[in-house]
Amino acid sequence: MTIIIRVDPKKPSRERIRDAAKIIREGGLVAFPTETVYGLGADALNESAVRKIFEVKQRPMDDPIIVHISRDNTLQLLAAEVPEVTFKLVKKFWPGPLTLVLKKSKIVPAVVTAGLDTVAVRMPSNKIAHMLIEEADVPIAAPSANLFGKPSPTTAEHVRQDLYGKIDMIIDGGQTEIGVESTVLDLTVSPPMILRPGGVTHEELESILGEVKLHPSVRRRKKVLEVVKSPGMKYRHYSPKADVILVEGKSGEDIERKVAKLVDEYRREGKRVGLLNLVKEMKIEADVCIFLGNSPEEVARNLFSSLREMDEKKVDLIVVGGIEEKGLGLAIMNRLRKASVRIV
């Protein structure tokens, strides 16, 4: 049986968090909110506990897991090499949605890093997450708290739907603030490279570092065949049961025209069609229409929950028009490409 506890995200109860921390220290699994999505946490230095994460999520063993910390000095414990530029980034973006990939120390179990010589580390800003790591007094390995390949969870209810009865505890801290995962930045290469776009934008990183490259997988749906240093690169992710059709184009009008045509064609075939409106509300008749918001920030916050809602409303497929890849738009388009079965 999975224990579910409610914790105030603004004023978390340390006593309740201590119960969760005890589970982590004893080798159990706890789902908890971060500012990005809900994570499924285990003691990162306990190999058998981390293996449970892979088993519960049905996650491939070659997909590395991000390690979450609450103190800057833990970074030196986990990383064998910490380049000078790291401290600029830590000062600016930690705690927050930025994951740094560094050469790993011997203390990090191979299961966490999928056997690689690098480790991905971040410090979450969510008060519940931060307090949980403090109270556990160990770094916490935590991928998203969902079954592998499904849309990431942004509420405790999403976690319950996927993992109830399979993990020890779910901490319900309300809806997550950002809604897409952290940005993963590889500092073992020069210039630094974004492996997965997320809550810290490409533009923000370049304002600190100068040139920052994008890994080719950021803008493509196709499976990455090589060894990867970050989750979200190698496999199809973020996918609801319904097929997602992503429409790209030269302009908003071009995209809207293509979306309208596709929705009409699929409905004529007898399909139950869901339409996701990003930023701009399209006046197109579909079986289910969901408007995600008036800005990329709102879209990011609502994206995964809207994909799950489409499944609840039993659509056969989901048509979504793309947005400009500026700011959070890059992370949104990355998730949609990974989730889609077809790009028009």
Helix content: 25-40%
CATH architecture of the largest domain: Alpha-Beta Complex
How many runs of DSSP E, i.e. beta strands?
Answer: 16
The whole-number mean of residue pLDDT values reads 94
Structural class: alpha/beta
Record the strand order, biggest sheet. 1-8-2-3-7-4-6-5-9-10-11
Number of helices, counting only DSSP H or I runs of 4 residues or more:
11
Note poorly predicted spans: none
What is the N-to-C succession of helices and strands? EHEEHEHHEHEHEHEEEHEEHEEHEHE
> Would you state the CATH class of the largest domain?
Alpha Beta
Intertermini distance: 44 Å
Quick one: biggest sheet? Answer: 11 strands, mixed
Radius of gyration: 20 Å
Overall tally of structural domains? 2
CA-based shape: globular
Q: In CATH terms, what is the fold-level topology of the largest domain?
A: DHBP synthase
Beta-strand portion reads 15-25%
The CATH H-level homologous superfamily of the largest domain:
DHBP synthase
